[in-house]
Amino acid sequence: xxxxxxxxxxxxxxxxxxxxxxxxxxxxxxxxxxxxxxxxxxxxxxxxxxxxxxxxxxxxxxxxxxxxxxxxxxxxxxxxxxxxxxxxxxxxxxxxxxxxxxxxxxxxxxxxxxxxxxxxxxxxxxxxxxxxxxxxxxxxxxxxxxxxxxxxxxxxxxxxxxxxxxxxxxxxxxxxxxxxxxxxxxxxxxxxxxxxxxxxxxxxxxxxxxxxxxxxxxxxxxxxxxxxxxxxxxxxxxxxxxxxxxxxxxxxxxxxxxxxxxxxxxxxxxxxxxxxxxxxxxxxxxxxxxxxxxxxxxxxxxxxxxxxxxxxxxxxxxxxxxxxxxxxxxxxxxxxxxxxxxxxxxxxxxxxxxxxxxxxxxxxxxxxxxxxxxxxxxxxxxxxxxxxxxxxxxxxxxxxxxxxxxxxxxxxxxxxxxxxxxxxxxxxxxxxxxxxxxxxxxxxxxxxxxxxxx
Length: 454
Ligand SMILES: Cc1cc2nc3c(=O)[nH]c(=O)nc-3n(C[C@H](O)[C@H](O)[C@H](O)COP(=O)(O)O)c2cc1C
Prior knowledge:
Order of helices and strands: EHEHHEHEHHEEEHEHEEHHHHHEHEHHH
CATH topology: TIM Barrel
Shape: globular
Number of helices: 17
Bound molecules: flavin mononucleotide
Number of strands: 12
CATH superfamily: Luciferase-like domain
CATH class: Alpha Beta
Protein backbone atom coordinates (compact mmCIF):
# COMPACT_ATOMS: atom_id res chain seq x y z
CA UNK A 1 0.00 0.00 0.00
CA UNK A 2 1.15 3.54 -0.77
CA UNK A 3 2.27 5.80 2.05
CA UNK A 4 -0.45 8.35 2.63
CA UNK A 5 -0.47 12.14 2.58
CA UNK A 6 -2.84 14.31 4.58
CA UNK A 7 -4.13 17.83 4.07
CA UNK A 8 -6.80 19.88 5.83
CA UNK A 9 -9.79 21.35 4.01
CA UNK A 10 -10.59 24.88 5.15
CA UNK A 11 -12.56 27.82 3.93
CA UNK A 12 -12.17 31.45 4.96
CA UNK A 13 -15.83 31.69 5.98
CA UNK A 14 -18.10 30.50 8.81
CA UNK A 15 -19.29 27.23 7.23
CA UNK A 16 -17.91 24.67 4.82
CA UNK A 17 -19.43 23.33 1.60
CA UNK A 18 -22.80 24.87 2.30
CA UNK A 19 -23.39 23.11 5.63
CA UNK A 20 -24.59 25.15 8.60
CA UNK A 21 -22.34 24.03 11.44
CA UNK A 22 -21.22 27.36 12.90
CA UNK A 23 -23.83 27.31 15.73
CA UNK A 24 -22.42 24.18 17.35
CA UNK A 25 -21.19 25.27 20.83
CA UNK A 26 -17.71 23.85 20.26
CA UNK A 27 -17.31 25.16 16.73
CA UNK A 28 -15.00 28.16 16.45
CA UNK A 29 -15.47 28.52 12.71
CA UNK A 30 -17.35 31.77 13.20
CA UNK A 31 -13.94 33.17 14.23
CA UNK A 32 -12.68 32.68 10.64
CA UNK A 33 -12.23 36.46 10.48
CA UNK A 34 -9.62 36.60 13.26
CA UNK A 35 -5.90 35.98 12.98
CA UNK A 36 -6.02 33.88 16.18
CA UNK A 37 -8.27 31.29 14.52
CA UNK A 38 -5.85 30.75 11.63
CA UNK A 39 -2.74 30.77 13.81
CA UNK A 40 -4.20 28.09 16.11
CA UNK A 41 -5.16 25.95 13.15
CA UNK A 42 -1.83 26.39 11.37
CA UNK A 43 -0.02 25.25 14.52
CA UNK A 44 -2.27 22.18 14.87
CA UNK A 45 -1.62 21.23 11.22
CA UNK A 46 2.12 21.82 11.32
CA UNK A 47 2.72 20.10 14.66
CA UNK A 48 0.35 17.28 13.68
CA UNK A 49 2.48 16.56 10.58
CA UNK A 50 -0.12 17.36 7.91
CA UNK A 51 1.35 18.18 4.51
CA UNK A 52 -0.81 21.19 3.78
CA UNK A 53 -3.73 23.36 4.68
CA UNK A 54 -6.08 23.85 1.76
CA UNK A 55 -8.14 27.02 1.45
CA UNK A 56 -11.20 26.43 -0.67
CA UNK A 57 -12.91 29.46 -2.16
CA UNK A 58 -16.00 30.35 -4.10
CA UNK A 59 -17.34 33.50 -5.66
CA UNK A 60 -21.00 34.36 -5.99
CA UNK A 61 -23.82 33.48 -3.62
CA UNK A 62 -26.74 31.11 -3.17
CA UNK A 63 -29.72 31.96 -5.34
CA UNK A 64 -32.95 29.97 -5.57
CA UNK A 65 -35.01 31.03 -8.60
CA UNK A 66 -33.21 34.33 -8.94
CA UNK A 67 -33.29 35.36 -5.28
CA UNK A 68 -30.85 34.92 -2.43
CA UNK A 69 -32.87 33.13 0.27
CA UNK A 70 -32.77 34.61 3.80
CA UNK A 71 -31.40 31.30 5.10
CA UNK A 72 -28.11 32.12 3.35
CA UNK A 73 -27.59 35.13 5.64
CA UNK A 74 -29.23 33.55 8.69
CA UNK A 75 -26.70 30.69 8.56
CA UNK A 76 -23.77 32.50 6.87
CA UNK A 77 -23.81 29.80 4.19
CA UNK A 78 -22.12 31.54 1.29
CA UNK A 79 -21.06 35.00 2.45
CA UNK A 80 -19.20 36.76 3.98
CA UNK A 81 -15.70 35.40 3.38
CA UNK A 82 -12.06 36.51 3.39
CA UNK A 83 -9.52 36.42 0.59
CA UNK A 84 -7.68 33.05 0.77
CA UNK A 85 -4.43 34.51 -0.57
CA UNK A 86 -4.18 36.99 2.27
CA UNK A 87 -5.12 34.37 4.86
CA UNK A 88 -2.46 32.11 3.27
CA UNK A 89 0.13 34.85 3.59
CA UNK A 90 -0.44 35.02 7.36
CA UNK A 91 -0.32 31.22 7.73
CA UNK A 92 2.88 30.91 5.70
CA UNK A 93 4.53 33.62 7.80
CA UNK A 94 3.79 31.69 11.00
CA UNK A 95 4.82 28.21 9.86
CA UNK A 96 8.01 26.71 8.48
CA UNK A 97 7.04 23.36 6.92
CA UNK A 98 3.31 23.40 6.25
CA UNK A 99 2.19 23.85 2.64
CA UNK A 100 -0.74 26.15 1.87
CA UNK A 101 -2.94 25.52 -1.15
CA UNK A 102 -5.03 28.41 -2.42
CA UNK A 103 -8.02 28.31 -4.70
CA UNK A 104 -7.88 30.60 -7.73
CA UNK A 105 -10.48 30.86 -10.49
CA UNK A 106 -9.50 30.73 -14.15
CA UNK A 107 -12.86 32.32 -15.02
CA UNK A 108 -12.41 35.39 -12.82
CA UNK A 109 -8.72 35.99 -12.11
CA UNK A 110 -6.50 38.08 -14.36
CA UNK A 111 -3.62 35.71 -15.29
CA UNK A 112 -0.76 38.21 -15.39
CA UNK A 113 -1.53 39.61 -11.92
CA UNK A 114 -2.42 36.16 -10.61
CA UNK A 115 0.97 34.76 -11.68
CA UNK A 116 2.76 37.43 -9.67
CA UNK A 117 0.59 36.90 -6.58
CA UNK A 118 1.32 33.15 -6.56
CA UNK A 119 5.02 33.67 -7.27
CA UNK A 120 5.24 36.14 -4.38
CA UNK A 121 3.82 33.66 -1.89
CA UNK A 122 5.96 30.83 -3.28
CA UNK A 123 9.04 33.04 -2.99
CA UNK A 124 8.38 34.28 0.54
CA UNK A 125 7.44 30.82 1.83
CA UNK A 126 10.45 29.04 0.33
CA UNK A 127 8.24 27.00 -2.03
CA UNK A 128 5.34 25.91 0.16
CA UNK A 129 2.44 26.89 -2.09
CA UNK A 130 -0.11 25.06 -4.18
CA UNK A 131 -2.86 26.29 -6.48
CA UNK A 132 -6.27 24.66 -6.60
CA UNK A 133 -7.33 25.41 -10.18
CA UNK A 134 -11.07 26.00 -10.37
CA UNK A 135 -13.29 27.06 -13.22
CA UNK A 136 -15.84 28.28 -10.64
CA UNK A 137 -18.82 26.01 -10.24
CA UNK A 138 -20.81 28.93 -8.79
CA UNK A 139 -20.39 30.86 -12.02
CA UNK A 140 -23.88 32.29 -12.62
CA UNK A 141 -23.92 34.71 -9.68
CA UNK A 142 -20.14 35.24 -9.81
CA UNK A 143 -20.22 36.56 -13.39
CA UNK A 144 -22.96 39.02 -12.41
CA UNK A 145 -20.76 40.30 -9.60
CA UNK A 146 -17.69 40.63 -11.82
CA UNK A 147 -19.61 42.03 -14.78
CA UNK A 148 -18.16 39.44 -17.16
CA UNK A 149 -19.98 37.13 -19.58
CA UNK A 150 -21.15 33.68 -18.50
CA UNK A 151 -19.09 30.87 -20.01
CA UNK A 152 -20.67 27.39 -20.34
CA UNK A 153 -19.34 24.46 -18.30
CA UNK A 154 -17.07 22.68 -20.80
CA UNK A 155 -15.89 25.90 -22.37
CA UNK A 156 -14.76 27.05 -18.91
CA UNK A 157 -12.22 24.20 -19.05
CA UNK A 158 -10.95 25.43 -22.47
CA UNK A 159 -10.54 28.84 -20.89
CA UNK A 160 -8.73 27.23 -17.95
CA UNK A 161 -6.37 25.52 -20.39
CA UNK A 162 -5.54 28.86 -21.99
CA UNK A 163 -5.12 30.50 -18.56
CA UNK A 164 -2.67 27.87 -17.30
CA UNK A 165 -0.63 27.92 -20.52
CA UNK A 166 -0.14 31.65 -20.06
CA UNK A 167 0.83 31.47 -16.39
CA UNK A 168 3.20 28.56 -17.16
CA UNK A 169 5.05 30.89 -19.54
CA UNK A 170 5.32 33.51 -16.80
CA UNK A 171 6.40 31.06 -14.09
CA UNK A 172 8.65 28.80 -16.14
CA UNK A 173 9.78 30.74 -19.20
CA UNK A 174 10.18 34.42 -18.29
CA UNK A 175 13.01 34.21 -15.76
CA UNK A 176 15.50 31.38 -15.65
CA UNK A 177 15.93 29.84 -12.18
CA UNK A 178 19.44 31.31 -11.82
CA UNK A 179 18.73 34.71 -13.41
CA UNK A 180 19.18 36.60 -10.14
CA UNK A 181 22.83 36.83 -9.17
CA UNK A 182 22.52 39.74 -6.70
CA UNK A 183 26.25 40.34 -7.01
CA UNK A 184 26.98 43.79 -5.59
CA UNK A 185 30.16 43.97 -7.64
CA UNK A 186 28.41 42.71 -10.78
CA UNK A 187 24.80 42.20 -11.89
CA UNK A 188 21.61 42.04 -9.96
CA UNK A 189 20.09 39.92 -12.73
CA UNK A 190 21.77 38.34 -15.74
CA UNK A 191 20.14 39.98 -18.81
CA UNK A 192 20.70 36.80 -20.86
CA UNK A 193 18.46 34.90 -18.46
CA UNK A 194 15.52 37.28 -18.49
CA UNK A 195 13.15 36.57 -21.39
CA UNK A 196 10.00 37.93 -22.91
CA UNK A 197 6.96 35.75 -23.31
CA UNK A 198 4.36 35.83 -26.05
CA UNK A 199 0.96 34.32 -25.48
CA UNK A 200 -1.82 34.72 -28.05
CA UNK A 201 -4.55 32.39 -26.80
CA UNK A 202 -8.27 32.21 -27.54
CA UNK A 203 -9.12 33.92 -24.21
CA UNK A 204 -5.94 35.55 -22.94
CA UNK A 205 -3.00 37.37 -24.46
CA UNK A 206 0.20 38.68 -22.94
CA UNK A 207 3.48 39.90 -24.35
CA UNK A 208 6.66 41.04 -22.69
CA UNK A 209 8.48 40.46 -19.41
CA UNK A 210 7.25 38.54 -16.40
CA UNK A 211 6.78 40.63 -13.28
CA UNK A 212 8.41 38.20 -10.82
CA UNK A 213 11.55 36.10 -10.92
CA UNK A 214 11.58 32.28 -10.79
CA UNK A 215 10.25 31.16 -7.39
CA UNK A 216 11.53 28.09 -5.49
CA UNK A 217 8.99 25.76 -7.12
CA UNK A 218 8.64 27.74 -10.36
CA UNK A 219 5.07 26.61 -10.77
CA UNK A 220 3.17 26.08 -7.49
CA UNK A 221 1.95 22.51 -6.95
CA UNK A 222 -1.13 22.15 -9.16
CA UNK A 223 -4.30 20.84 -7.51
CA UNK A 224 -7.58 20.21 -9.27
CA UNK A 225 -10.95 18.65 -8.43
CA UNK A 226 -13.05 18.64 -11.60
CA UNK A 227 -15.10 15.45 -11.85
CA UNK A 228 -17.00 15.91 -15.13
CA UNK A 229 -15.47 14.40 -18.31
CA UNK A 230 -14.07 17.82 -19.27
CA UNK A 231 -12.83 18.35 -15.70
CA UNK A 232 -11.10 14.99 -15.57
CA UNK A 233 -9.42 15.50 -18.93
CA UNK A 234 -8.13 18.87 -17.72
CA UNK A 235 -6.96 17.36 -14.42
CA UNK A 236 -5.21 14.52 -16.26
CA UNK A 237 -3.33 17.07 -18.37
CA UNK A 238 -2.35 19.55 -15.69
CA UNK A 239 -3.08 18.30 -12.15
CA UNK A 240 -0.38 17.01 -9.85
CA UNK A 241 -2.83 16.34 -7.08
CA UNK A 242 -6.51 15.62 -7.69
CA UNK A 243 -9.14 15.90 -4.98
CA UNK A 244 -12.07 13.55 -5.22
CA UNK A 245 -15.27 14.00 -3.23
CA UNK A 246 -16.59 11.38 -0.84
CA UNK A 247 -18.32 8.17 -1.92
CA UNK A 248 -18.13 4.41 -1.54
CA UNK A 249 -14.81 2.64 -2.02
CA UNK A 250 -16.10 1.42 -5.41
CA UNK A 251 -17.01 4.96 -6.51
CA UNK A 252 -13.65 6.29 -5.32
CA UNK A 253 -11.80 3.44 -7.05
CA UNK A 254 -13.55 4.19 -10.36
CA UNK A 255 -12.82 7.90 -9.98
CA UNK A 256 -9.18 7.35 -9.09
CA UNK A 257 -8.76 4.98 -12.08
CA UNK A 258 -10.39 7.47 -14.47
CA UNK A 259 -8.09 10.27 -13.30
CA UNK A 260 -4.97 8.15 -13.79
CA UNK A 261 -6.20 7.10 -17.25
CA UNK A 262 -6.69 10.76 -18.13
CA UNK A 263 -3.08 11.43 -17.08
CA UNK A 264 -1.82 8.57 -19.27
CA UNK A 265 -3.85 9.88 -22.23
CA UNK A 266 -1.98 13.17 -21.80
CA UNK A 267 1.38 11.41 -22.01
CA UNK A 268 2.02 11.39 -18.26
CA UNK A 269 2.46 8.39 -16.00
CA UNK A 270 -0.50 7.03 -14.02
CA UNK A 271 1.32 7.81 -10.78
CA UNK A 272 2.25 11.35 -11.76
CA UNK A 273 -1.09 12.37 -10.24
CA UNK A 274 -1.74 12.05 -6.53
CA UNK A 275 -5.37 11.25 -5.83
CA UNK A 276 -6.62 12.48 -2.46
CA UNK A 277 -10.16 11.85 -1.22
CA UNK A 278 -12.12 14.30 0.87
CA UNK A 279 -12.69 12.64 4.25
CA UNK A 280 -15.00 13.70 7.04
CA UNK A 281 -15.20 11.91 10.36
CA UNK A 282 -16.51 12.27 13.88
CA UNK A 283 -14.37 10.54 16.50
CA UNK A 284 -15.68 9.40 19.89
CA UNK A 285 -14.44 7.27 22.78
CA UNK A 286 -17.03 4.71 21.66
CA UNK A 287 -19.09 4.45 18.48
CA UNK A 288 -22.17 5.57 20.45
CA UNK A 289 -20.33 8.58 21.80
CA UNK A 290 -19.23 9.53 18.26
CA UNK A 291 -22.78 9.10 16.96
CA UNK A 292 -24.13 11.32 19.76
CA UNK A 293 -21.61 14.00 18.78
CA UNK A 294 -22.61 13.72 15.13
CA UNK A 295 -26.33 13.90 16.00
CA UNK A 296 -25.63 17.21 17.78
CA UNK A 297 -24.19 18.57 14.54
CA UNK A 298 -27.07 17.30 12.44
CA UNK A 299 -29.61 18.79 14.84
CA UNK A 300 -28.51 22.26 13.83
CA UNK A 301 -29.31 21.67 10.13
CA UNK A 302 -32.51 22.39 8.21
CA UNK A 303 -33.65 21.17 4.74
CA UNK A 304 -33.72 24.82 3.59
CA UNK A 305 -29.94 24.86 4.02
CA UNK A 306 -29.56 21.98 1.57
CA UNK A 307 -31.90 23.57 -0.96
CA UNK A 308 -30.02 26.89 -0.79
CA UNK A 309 -26.57 25.27 -0.91
CA UNK A 310 -27.50 22.94 -3.74
CA UNK A 311 -28.85 25.87 -5.74
CA UNK A 312 -25.63 27.80 -5.09
CA UNK A 313 -23.47 25.04 -6.57
CA UNK A 314 -25.81 24.01 -9.40
CA UNK A 315 -28.42 26.75 -9.98
CA UNK A 316 -31.09 24.04 -9.49
CA UNK A 317 -33.99 24.25 -7.03
CA UNK A 318 -34.40 20.69 -5.70
CA UNK A 319 -37.75 21.54 -4.10
CA UNK A 320 -39.23 22.26 -7.56
CA UNK A 321 -38.74 18.69 -8.86
CA UNK A 322 -40.97 15.64 -8.61
CA UNK A 323 -39.29 13.68 -5.78
CA UNK A 324 -39.17 10.59 -8.03
CA UNK A 325 -36.87 12.32 -10.55
CA UNK A 326 -33.54 10.47 -10.83
CA UNK A 327 -30.75 12.88 -9.90
CA UNK A 328 -28.92 12.02 -13.12
CA UNK A 329 -31.77 13.61 -15.15
CA UNK A 330 -30.81 17.03 -13.78
CA UNK A 331 -28.56 19.21 -15.91
CA UNK A 332 -26.46 22.17 -14.91
CA UNK A 333 -23.87 24.46 -16.48
CA UNK A 334 -22.44 25.06 -13.00
CA UNK A 335 -20.87 22.17 -11.02
CA UNK A 336 -21.75 18.94 -12.87
CA UNK A 337 -20.16 16.74 -10.23
CA UNK A 338 -22.87 17.87 -7.83
CA UNK A 339 -25.28 16.02 -10.12
CA UNK A 340 -23.22 12.96 -11.14
CA UNK A 341 -22.16 12.07 -7.58
CA UNK A 342 -25.80 11.32 -6.73
CA UNK A 343 -26.19 8.70 -9.48
CA UNK A 344 -28.63 6.02 -8.33
CA UNK A 345 -30.59 8.39 -6.07
CA UNK A 346 -33.74 10.41 -6.67
CA UNK A 347 -34.34 14.06 -5.81
CA UNK A 348 -36.58 12.80 -2.97
CA UNK A 349 -33.75 10.63 -1.56
CA UNK A 350 -31.40 13.58 -1.45
CA UNK A 351 -33.98 15.85 0.16
CA UNK A 352 -35.15 13.25 2.68
CA UNK A 353 -31.71 12.23 3.82
CA UNK A 354 -30.21 15.57 3.00
CA UNK A 355 -27.75 15.66 5.84
CA UNK A 356 -26.11 12.47 4.60
CA UNK A 357 -26.33 13.17 0.90
CA UNK A 358 -25.81 16.92 1.15
CA UNK A 359 -23.28 18.91 -0.79
CA UNK A 360 -20.31 17.68 1.28
CA UNK A 361 -19.28 14.06 1.78
CA UNK A 362 -20.87 11.65 4.26
CA UNK A 363 -19.16 11.54 7.67
CA UNK A 364 -17.62 8.36 9.04
CA UNK A 365 -18.57 7.99 12.69
CA UNK A 366 -16.50 5.83 15.06
CA UNK A 367 -13.59 5.45 17.44
CA UNK A 368 -10.05 6.47 16.48
CA UNK A 369 -9.17 2.81 15.77
CA UNK A 370 -12.23 2.42 13.55
CA UNK A 371 -11.40 5.63 11.69
CA UNK A 372 -7.83 4.42 11.11
CA UNK A 373 -9.09 1.03 9.83
CA UNK A 374 -11.54 2.79 7.52
CA UNK A 375 -8.89 5.17 6.14
CA UNK A 376 -6.57 2.26 5.35
CA UNK A 377 -9.36 0.21 3.76
CA UNK A 378 -10.41 3.13 1.55
CA UNK A 379 -6.84 3.90 0.49
CA UNK A 380 -6.17 0.26 -0.40
CA UNK A 381 -9.52 -0.32 -2.08
CA UNK A 382 -9.47 2.83 -4.19
CA UNK A 383 -5.74 3.21 -4.86
CA UNK A 384 -5.58 6.56 -3.08
CA UNK A 385 -2.50 8.62 -2.27
CA UNK A 386 -4.01 10.41 0.68
CA UNK A 387 -6.88 12.28 2.26
CA UNK A 388 -8.14 15.80 2.50
CA UNK A 389 -9.57 16.01 6.02
CA UNK A 390 -12.82 17.92 5.99
CA UNK A 391 -13.50 18.84 9.61
CA UNK A 392 -17.01 19.18 10.98
CA UNK A 393 -16.15 21.17 14.12
CA UNK A 394 -13.08 23.41 14.22
CA UNK A 395 -10.47 23.19 15.55
CA UNK A 396 -11.76 20.18 17.56
CA UNK A 397 -12.18 17.77 14.62
CA UNK A 398 -8.67 18.50 13.34
CA UNK A 399 -7.14 18.15 16.82
CA UNK A 400 -9.01 14.85 17.31
CA UNK A 401 -7.64 13.50 14.02
CA UNK A 402 -4.03 14.54 14.48
CA UNK A 403 -3.89 13.51 18.14
CA UNK A 404 -5.90 10.28 18.01
CA UNK A 405 -5.82 8.87 14.47
CA UNK A 406 -2.47 10.01 13.06
CA UNK A 407 -0.47 8.18 15.80
CA UNK A 408 -2.31 4.92 14.96
CA UNK A 409 -1.67 5.40 11.24
CA UNK A 410 2.00 6.14 11.94
CA UNK A 411 2.30 3.07 14.09
CA UNK A 412 0.89 1.03 11.22
CA UNK A 413 3.51 2.54 8.92
CA UNK A 414 1.11 4.05 6.37
CA UNK A 415 1.92 7.77 6.70
CA UNK A 416 4.25 9.26 4.08
CA UNK A 417 7.48 10.62 5.57
CA UNK A 418 6.94 14.00 3.79
CA UNK A 419 10.55 15.00 3.47
CA UNK A 420 11.90 18.08 1.71
CA UNK A 421 11.36 21.74 2.30
CA UNK A 422 8.98 22.49 -0.59
CA UNK A 423 5.40 21.31 -0.93
CA UNK A 424 6.21 19.50 -4.20
CA UNK A 425 9.04 17.49 -2.61
CA UNK A 426 6.88 16.61 0.41
CA UNK A 427 3.87 15.57 -1.63
CA UNK A 428 5.39 13.92 -4.67
CA UNK A 429 8.49 12.36 -3.10
CA UNK A 430 10.47 14.13 -5.81
CA UNK A 431 13.98 15.26 -5.00
CA UNK A 432 13.44 18.40 -7.07
CA UNK A 433 11.22 21.33 -6.08
CA UNK A 434 10.25 21.95 -9.71
CA UNK A 435 7.95 20.16 -12.14
CA UNK A 436 8.94 16.82 -13.70
CA UNK A 437 9.78 16.66 -17.41
CA UNK A 438 6.48 15.02 -18.44
CA UNK A 439 4.39 17.97 -17.23
CA UNK A 440 3.11 20.33 -19.97
CA UNK A 441 4.34 23.43 -18.10
CA UNK A 442 7.93 22.38 -18.75
CA UNK A 443 7.56 23.16 -22.47
CA UNK A 444 7.02 26.81 -21.42
CA UNK A 445 10.77 26.98 -20.72
CA UNK A 446 11.30 28.13 -24.29
CA UNK A 447 14.85 29.30 -23.47
CA UNK A 448 15.86 25.66 -22.92
CA UNK A 449 15.23 24.77 -26.58
CA UNK A 450 17.10 27.92 -27.67
CA UNK A 451 20.06 27.01 -25.44
CA UNK A 452 19.98 23.38 -26.64
CA UNK A 453 19.86 24.43 -30.32
CA UNK A 454 22.75 26.89 -30.06
C1 LIG B 1 -12.32 18.40 -2.23
C2 LIG B 1 -12.87 19.37 -3.23
C3 LIG B 1 -12.59 20.71 -3.08
C4 LIG B 1 -13.11 21.65 -3.98
N1 LIG B 1 -12.85 22.97 -3.79
C5 LIG B 1 -13.41 23.89 -4.59
C6 LIG B 1 -13.21 25.28 -4.37
O1 LIG B 1 -12.53 25.68 -3.44
N2 LIG B 1 -13.81 26.16 -5.20
C7 LIG B 1 -14.58 25.76 -6.28
O2 LIG B 1 -15.07 26.62 -7.00
N3 LIG B 1 -14.77 24.45 -6.52
C8 LIG B 1 -14.23 23.51 -5.70
N4 LIG B 1 -14.45 22.19 -5.91
C9 LIG B 1 -15.23 21.81 -7.08
C10 LIG B 1 -14.38 21.41 -8.27
O3 LIG B 1 -13.15 22.06 -8.33
C11 LIG B 1 -15.05 21.63 -9.61
O4 LIG B 1 -14.95 22.98 -9.94
C12 LIG B 1 -16.46 21.31 -9.60
O5 LIG B 1 -16.55 19.98 -9.23
C13 LIG B 1 -17.09 21.61 -10.98
O6 LIG B 1 -16.41 21.00 -12.00
P1 LIG B 1 -16.91 19.65 -12.64
O7 LIG B 1 -18.30 19.92 -13.11
O8 LIG B 1 -15.92 19.37 -13.70
O9 LIG B 1 -16.86 18.65 -11.54
C14 LIG B 1 -13.94 21.23 -5.04
C15 LIG B 1 -14.21 19.87 -5.20
C16 LIG B 1 -13.70 18.94 -4.29
C17 LIG B 1 -14.00 17.48 -4.47
